[in-house]
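Below is a typical protein record.
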Amino acid sequence: MSDSSWLIETELKSKTVSLIPLRKDHAAALVQAAADGHLWELWFTSAPNENTVDDYVGFALSEQAAGRALPFVVVHNDTQKIVGTTRICNADGHNRRVEIGYTWYAKSHQRTAVNTECKRLLLGYAFEALAVIAVEFRTHWHNHASRTAIARLGAKQDGVLRNHQKNADGSYRDTVVFSIIDHEWPMVKKSLEYKLRQTRE
């Protein structure tokens, strides 16, 4: 099975958020969401500004066309506003593996139920619809908030890729790799659903 036939564009919805396939006309709303907290100023994130958003969206859509990614915008159901973005990426249909990445949220929606619901939707889609054997997460060594959030999902740290990628300033980043594998998913799912019930009560 080719990756392009394996990854089928879809919409995912929960109580708080909807994950809608990314489109070019979402660019302005993404910049507006990233302006909440000036996220593009955080050197360890990938949030775009008005000068970089076209390339940001273009790359995501090219990865989708190549069968390697499913990029989404995150829409808050109460306001119907885009509050961030996330992506299934680095898809490997032969080995039944994907990564969840390129995730960021407007500052006012960080440390809320938004991230937990997004991850519950994406993990459920990956394990239950795509039948993957592993979902990977990667983050910058210095992005401690992201590392903590990934660990709280129930992902286990696989290791650190040192001098993994070059930053815009020419320095190299260390990348922390986490994963959840298929036999862990039922327990991770229960944990996420428990956390969401606690948030809503």
